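Example record used in the benchmark description.
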Amino acid sequence: MAGSKKDLEAEVPVHVEHTVGVQQNHDDVFGELSDDAPNFRNVGFIGTIILMMKSQIGLGVLAIPSAFDILGMVPGIICLFVMAFITTWSGYIIGTFKLKHREVYSIGDAGGIMFGLPGRIYLASGFCLLDQPYSCLSHATCTAVFAAVAAIVGFGFSSIRTLGRITWLAWVSLPCIITAVITVTIAVGIQDRPAAAPATGGPWVSDWKVVGNPSFAEGIAAASSLLFAFSGTPGFFSIVSEMRNPERYPAAMATCQAGVTAVYAIIGGVIYYYCGSYVSSPALGSAGGVIKIVSYGFALPGLLGTMTIVTHIPSKFIFVHLLRGSKHLSSNTPTHWMSWFGCTFGVTVIAWIIASTIPVFNALVSLIGALLGPVLCIQPMGAMWLYDNWEKGKSQKKTKSWILGTVWSVTLIILGVFLMVAGTYGSVLSIMTAYSESGGSVAFSCGDNSNST
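Model output (structure tokens):
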């Protein structure tokens, strides 16, 4: 939650200057933070956990049961834990890299340090697109109209200038999305059959599978959906940059990842166990009827909260990059305000276009997870470790930890290439199939995308 200026002074190891009647703190990203400027370093420990959990838990959790249906229960859970382990390591590297390079605000800045301007442009562009499907919040009304309304609301909330002031929204929206999925989980457990199952034919028994039998394209697309569930990871750069005490980031990140993984495994496993191949995607439609309405009622504030955070963070990156080094970055000038609103509006429009162009839920989630997940959640962190540690192996004796770290980092970079190429291939095939099937959603349509199997 937002803290006082006194808390900022007590916890942040920054250079302090005193001017006439105004106290200023210097930050390597935001410059001078004076009393009459927005407080960009005001996120506490608990607030950090909530913001990170909310950046992770969103649309991704709604695709996990259907991913388990494709892969099977055991391979699905194993794949989920593998993705969780890799992104937790990536999250740890984000913290260590930030503390060594205090000027970094986003993954684009890290790319600039490692690879110069091309690296900055490449990672920054991908980051601004990674979590932008959130204006396609699933629903049963006109898709095009609802997406536009969601985008407008998201623009308003994401235009709040500091993460410290957005933390309250994460506190509200995180319980909402968890309540929604728990409601569906309980409902499918006590109902005699899922909403999509045949209504006749005697007692219904779930056809869940221990091990699935997907094609390569189906399996890799499902794995990409599980990676998308952890796609908030690169946003941790911005969150740690606005912490009052960045040294406490590793504990906050580990707590976040443990909680997120537990929610994903329990919710995904239970819903799939009771629904089997008749699980809906998004999963909120699995119980049907009144439960579907109730669960979407809880979920929408939660998804709007996630949309706010994933719009705010790339907007802030662009904003910082545009105004860095000038007085306008941390001052309430007309240039400051026009630049800020221009950034949030531009990112919102891009999100709306992406969501409206590919309104097929599973296909959108797997495509974003495949095309951008490895590039932003896996490969850069391997490169960051190599960047900060490679010289140690050249100038000193190669230790076992250095060798293991090098092998692990290189392996992740190679794995990322495979996941990106193969996952994109599988996702594109699923999109083509969805568009060719009768009744499939089309771009900018009023088709109902709140419930599919």
